[in-house]
Design goal:
Residues 1-34 are annotated as: Disordered. This protein has 139 residues and is α+β, with helices and mostly antiparallel strands. It folds into two domains: 1-38, Single Sheet (N-terminal domain of TfIIb); 40-138, K homology (KH) domain (GMP Synthetase, Chain A, domain 3, 2-Layer Sandwich), CATH 3.30.300. It has three helices and six strands; from the N terminus they run βββαββααβ. A hairpin with a 4-residue loop joins strand 2 (12-17) and strand 3 (22-26). Helix 1 packs across helix 2. The radius of gyration is 17 Å and the shape is elongated.
């Protein structure tokens, strides 16, 4: 897996993934940025949400659940000192579908957190307190 990061002026950078996708990152105006894109730490948080959501949906599909929507809400706390690392992150999944089985949704979230999500497991090993919750909505 590869990526490149190119400075595009002020506090702005263009990230390009090995698969050719680009995203603009930028800093806030009080740090020389123009707010043209997410901050790098926001990208890290979004990556965690994407990684875990990918796992949850994959597991639910394999469990033959009729999922119509799934979204993850992430809330993070950071240290007050520099480096301002993440100290706590909570992922809350909202899974909608037809006659979803709660035990299978719970299992999907647990398996992602404990076994499959590389981002989640890496952050936990670095000392970040990760918690997960879910709710099920009928479509």
């Amino acid at each position: 897996m590869k990526a490149t990061i190119n400075w595009t002026g002020n506090a702005s950078f263009k990230a390009t993934s090995g698969s050719g996708h680009e995203i603009q990152m930028d800093g806030p105006p009080d740090h020389g940025g123009e707010n043209l894109g997410p901050r790098p730490m926001e990208m890290l948080l979004m990556g965690l949400g994407g990684c875990s959501s990918f796992d949850v949906m994959s597991i639910l599909k394999k469990s033959r659940q009729d999922v119509t929507a799934c979204h993850a809400e992430l809330e993070a706390e950071r240290a007050d000192a520099i480096p301002a690392v993440f100290t706590k992150i909570h992922l809350h999944f909202v899974v909608s579908g037809n006659r979803l089985k709660e035990n299978l949704v719970k299992r999907a979230v647990s398996l992602s957190a404990e076994k499959y999500c590389s981002a989640s497991i890496m952050l936990e090993k670095a000392g970040v307190e990760l918690t997960h919750s879910y709710e099920i909505r009928e479509a």
